[in-house]
């Protein structure tokens, strides 16, 4: 062996190390030697979801082309979560079936204007139902009726108008003051007849009926004598 052999060996090792270092800088070492698995679309492109997010295969490939297989899988999971949340946000909420079935709603604040309007409407409806029932019954007793026939409308004779008004005022007094004595009721009716208060209630109920599409007509078999009693 030569005396320069150890020096040559050391020099060779240094050269080999430098060569390996330079080659590693020129070409980065690949951490994954195996090929990157990418999703392959074999089926037709799925329809857009409710949120109108388009996920074409080429767009997914653009996201996952530079990622390893695990990274691409994570990206797909994240996109799926975004799709589900966006679809829920775009879908309108269905009404509660219990709320619709039983008509449940929050009550109006006690003593508020809304509550007052509801209370007035309820009381007035009950009051006018009572009055209109008396009006219809008195017309039937006088030989008239209420029909949805505007072409058959007739003018009530004055005496009939008065008697129908008396029945209406009597029913109104009974509704508003049920404990009134018979003597007081009779005195009230006499005064109402003298100043035509009774006839005005007949006119009022007749206008209300006509506004709803009901008209006073003459029933068959009854005749009037040009404004006189039947």
What are the SSEs and their pairings?
Blueprint: H1 5-26, H2 57-64, H3 69-90, H4 97-102, H5 113-141, E1 144-147, H6 158-176, H7 182-194, H8 197-211, E2 215-218
Antiparallel strand pairs: 1-2
In brief, what are we looking at here?
The chain is mainly α. The protein has eight helices and two strands.
How is the quaternary structure best described? single chain
Our measurement of the CA-to-CA distance between the termini, rounded to an integer number of angstroms, reads: 157 Å
Question: Rg to the nearest angstrom?
Answer: 48 Å
Specify the overall morphology.
Answer: elongated
The amount of helix comes to 55-70%
Give me the strand/helix succession.
Answer: HHHHHEHHHE
Structural overview:
- The chain is mostly helical and 230 residues long.
- Among the domains are: 35-82, no CATH class; 125-218.
- The protein contains eight helices and two strands; from the N terminus they run αααααβαααβ.
- Strands 1-2 form a two-stranded antiparallel sheet.
- The longest helix has 29 residues, at 113-141.
- It is elongated and about 140 Å long.
- The model is unreliable at 221-230 (pLDDT under 50).
Give a quick set of tags describing it.
mainly alpha, two-stranded antiparallel ribbon, 3% strand, disordered C terminus
